[in-house]
Amino acid sequence: NSCSGRSSQQYVKGGAGCLYCVLTTVLASNLLYLPLQMSEEGREPEGQEQKSHDISSASEDRNQLTYLVTDAPPWYLCIFLAIQHCLTAFGATISIPLILSEGLCLQHDSLTQSHLINSIFFVSGLCTLLQVTFGVRLPILQGGTFSLLTPTMAMLSMPQWECPAWTRNASLVDTSLLVFKEEWQIRLRNLQGSIMVASLLQIVVGFSGVIGFLMRFIGPLTIAPTITLIGLSLFESSAAKAGTHWGISAMTTLLIILFSQYLRLIPVPVPAYNKIKKLHTSKFYIFQRFSILLGIVVSWLFCYILTVSDVLPSNPAHYGHLARTDVKGNVISDASWFTFPYPGQWGVPAVSLAGVFGLMSGIFCTMAESVGDYYACAKLSGAPPPPRHAINRGIGVQGLGSLLAGAFGTGNGTTSFSENVAVLGITKVSSRRVILLSGVFMILIGIFGKISAVITTIPDPVVGGMFMVMFGVITATGISNLQSTDMNSSRTIFIFGFSMFSALSIPNWIVKNPGSLHTGVKEVDHVLHILLTTNMFVGGFLGFILDNTIPGTKRERGLPDREHEDVSDKFSASLELYDLPFGITSFLSSQSWVRYVPFCPWRDRDTDGRTEDNNVMLRRGSELSSHGEIVEMR
């Protein structure tokens, strides 16, 4: 009931945990209005006002936070909630390396896949600590982003980066050979170098305060096609893995649907203890909160039973062989107990100019995603809307996180996980200490090599079934961003329809006619090829241009038409929670030049009122968090 009265797309960007977050908010809304409808039937009008007041009081009690951002919950509660946050981000985090392995020629090298999983968990935990401590300072988890997957796969699909035929044949791949290692390492080095350079854009935009200016021009008609096309562009990866055994993948999908849709209201009694009730049982909605994880585990166990009973074919040439749990060989025994990711572990990063420009389109998308997440997180945490310096600092630190992700060789960047933002509303605990502990746990997962090795043994059809749900939700959530626009307007229909159709047609034609782009400059040809084969860039760019050039009212564009008032005094926490730690703010408050630094808090600015630029940020952030214009791409 914690998310009652909010849009079901408010806190989700897509990813493994987003499905149950949507269901939780929808369920809470229904439960909130059901007593109201019942009270209106069979009662006299004079009793309606009192009943409405009771419902309002009950709603306030349900939405009361147990622990605020700066509070310190008991250590055992911190541990339990931190583990839950890690499990919520689990699906999206492991999906990214598994998808990248295809483009990196690593589909038959499970040990290296496990190293990539170690690296992304380690960097995600490290970036979470940085964001909560020095960034926006809200309880928000950091992790991989799907926004960079589309331009990455476009980069790796270029003729010079296509995987040799022998790397696709498991019988011909010897992972210990130097020639094989060089095949995937040269691709990963170019990818990580391009990510590092592209992340500099985010660092500059964040710490310079330019993000406030950019958000004036980014509306739902830019966000909607961009997010929708992220989900649609990944259908080939989903179909390829699901097609290895459609029966197993269908079972995985059906289990996730069963847990998340049909069994979400069924509580499971679990033992609990407190000082008042002592040892007792408590209701826990496990199907609602861990539908993705449960679906994977059950299907994985079923595949293991079919493997030991020798029902699935042992011949690699037969259909269904990849559903076996022993396909990955001795990856668990070969993996070391401890793995310590470090910058440059795959060699010295290289830079591809074409890759940098392609990845910049994904970087812009992650910035828009995160701004909406900051406002949603503040709303759920009982905190005032984040001031301009906190948003600038959050985007800048996120850029530093993408720089670290590139340096460590994860093959991806970082963004905020909005599915974990929704968990705050469910648990009623918005303490920063819980998220900090989640970051520590993710770092530990990244260090223990056996854990990631076990994850790589998940059969391909199980992963494919999970992808069918995850990417479907991303696609639908992207479309739902249009709810704030006027869908009866021919302007809205034209911009969205043209952007979507062009984003599907143009890349498809260029892929089928790879030699059609000839400008006379090889580097320019590569840049154009990556940009024009990246669906989300084509759709988002066309939507951005048309939305800002075709005349239209704010209602048609889905933009707010009123000033956002300063309501910081109505929140449970003060703006001081956004101050820098360790007394840095107190030290800087005496310096007059601090007011000119976009990412530094200055008390006089916070107390005397917000500038016009900050009002613009508040209006855009309120709209993003209220209308769900942002989708999570872990």
From TrEMBL:
Topology relative to the membrane: Multi-pass membrane protein
Subcellular locations according to the entry: Membrane
TM spans (from-to): 12-33, 74-100, 120-140, 195-214, 246-265, 286-307, 346-365, 434-455, 461-480, 492-511, 526-546
GO cellular component: plasma membrane
Pfam families the record matches: Xan_ur_permease
Record's keyword terms, sorted: Membrane, Transmembrane, Transmembrane helix, Transport
The name this protein goes by in its record: Solute carrier family 23 member 1-like
GO molecular function: transmembrane transporter activity
Listed InterPro entries: NCS2, Xan_ur_permease
Keyword Metal-binding part of the UniProt annotation: no
